[in-house]
TrEMBL record:
Pfam families, per database record: CoA_transf_3
InterPro entries documented for this protein: CoA-transferase_III, CoA-Trfase_fam_III, CoA-Trfase_III_dom3_sf, CoA-Trfase_III_dom_1_sf
UniProt feature coiled coil, ranges: none
Name the UniProt record assigns to this protein: CoA transferase
Keyword match Transferase: yes
Lineage top rank: taxon: Bacteria
Chain segments annotated as transmembrane: none
Organism whose genome encodes this protein: Falsiroseomonas selenitidurans
Keywords on record: Transferase
UniProt entry tagged with the keyword Transferase: yes
């Protein structure tokens, strides 16, 4: 890690951008984490008892491990937005900011006197990103939602069901994917809106509306136009996908799973040779992707018979030698210890002053001349760690409120 909290790393593209986070739990703070990793100054405004996410997951030395990532590169301040002093300080933060990201239920900011009209009265160029379950309008606007609801209503959870199994609920993917998606979209939209304003002194701030359901729904590929034209509703396909073959996950002799993508014409022929079945590669029924999709079960059965004869690592090595896209299903131990993850510093060790040596995931983008560890200027801070720095140094307060 490099740098002092509050000082950006030279060379990051969003250095100089000032962002206020009024987020809690995942979606809003995920958006600002991306912006902070890109160099923005992010001031995370927390209630006096902290973002509830500080209570999630494991703890070490009394400190939440997840928050080391969740709050990294951010300045933490505490404000009671229900008090006049808290709102006054919030107005001061807004006056110097380029953007604000919030993910409260629609109408909350208006109820406490900090709605967009008030905020734009303070700073007409402010970009305001509002992240919510269902959006700022529509009949479901006021309904509560968490990430699982975004998956359910956005269409994803329907697709994760096991075909033919009706007595078990479709599984979730194991992380709050709809929160993360909405956060990514919010970060992209904030960057775009700030770019639109940059260099134009007459430009006004925009209001960005991102919702969890819409973020998931945006990933549904061609399913909506297919339904609109024919009434077809795509059904769960398990570990396969109906539009390409073979691409599936196959059980190996040691009980582990191997994901194989053999869904281009030349790769399919190499795959058939590698598993000792060149006749399948020469079968005219399987000459193109359309034909292979029509005979998916037959092809998958043949590949599965081969994978069950070998341990997953051995089968992976055979296919890699033939230049076939494949991978064992990694758990976190596999990720943390993989030499490629380590060589690219996708997995990196940082020094967290609250926790000690800790593994962090790198930011999902690279910039020449800047190493992934250098992008972590500091880890998630203690609650209110930067109150004095922000209120006195940045806002110019001369005494405690």
């Amino acid at each position: 890690m490099t740098g002092k909290p509050g000082l950006p790393l030279a060379g990051l593209p969003l250095t100089g951008l000032k962002v206020v986070e009024l987020g809690h739990y995942i979606a809003g703070p995920f958006a600002t984490r991306l912006l902070a990793d890109l160099g923005a100054e992010v001031i995370k405004v927390e209630p006096p008892d902290g973002d509830p996410i500080r209570g999630w997951g494991s703890r070490h030395n009394g400190h939440p491990v997840w928050f080391s990532i969740h709050g990294r590169n951010k300045l933490s301040v505490t404000l009671d937005l229900k008090s006049e002093q808290g709102r006054a300080r919030m107005r001061g933060l807004v006056a110097r900011a380029d953007a604000l990201v919030e993910n409260f239920r629609p109408g909350f900011l208006e109820r406490i006197g900090l709605g967009p009209a008030v905020l734009h009265g303070i700073n007409p160029r402010l970009v305001i990103a509002r992240v919510s379950g269902f959006g700022q309008d529509g009949p479901y606007r006021d309904k509560p939602a968490f990430g699982s609801i975004g998956e359910a209503m956005g269409g994803l959870r329907h697709l994760t069901a096991t075909p033919g199994v009706t007595d078990h609920p479709p599984p979730r993917c194991g992380v709050s994917i709809s929160d993360d998606l909405a956060g990514m979209y919010a970060a992209l939209a904030v960057t775009a809106a700030c770019w639109d304003i940059k260099g134009n002194p007459e430009a006004k701030g925009r209001i960005i509306d991102v919702d969890l359901v819409g973020a998931v729904f945006s990933l549904m590929e061609g399913m909506l136009p297919e339904y609109g034209l024919t009434g077809a509703v795509r059904q769960p396909a398990g570990s396969a996908i109906l539009t390409a073959a073979p691409t599936n996950t196959y059980l190996c002799a040691d009980g582990k799973w191997l994901c194989i993508g053999g869904n281009s014409d030349p790769i399919f022929k190499r795959l058939c040779d590698a598993i000792g079945n060149p006749a399948m590669g020469a079968d005219p029924r399987f000459a193109d992707n359309r034909g292979r999709c029509a005979h998916m079960a037959e092809i998958d059965a043949a590949i599965g018979r081969w994978t069950r004869t070998l341990p997953a690592a051995k089968a992976e090595a055979v296919l890699e030698a033939a230049d076939i896209p494949c991978s064992r299903l990694y758990d976190m131990r596999d990720c943390a210890e993989d030499p490629h993850f380590r060589a690219r510093q996708t997995v990196m060790e940082v020094q967290d002053p609250l926790i000690g040596p800790l593994l962090h995931p790198a930011a999902p983008f690279r910039f020449d001349g800047i190493s992934p560890p250098d992008m972590v200027r500091w880890t998630g801070p203690a609650l209110g760690a930067h109150n004095d720095q922000v209120f006195k140094d940045l806002l110019g307060e001369t005494q405690d409120g």
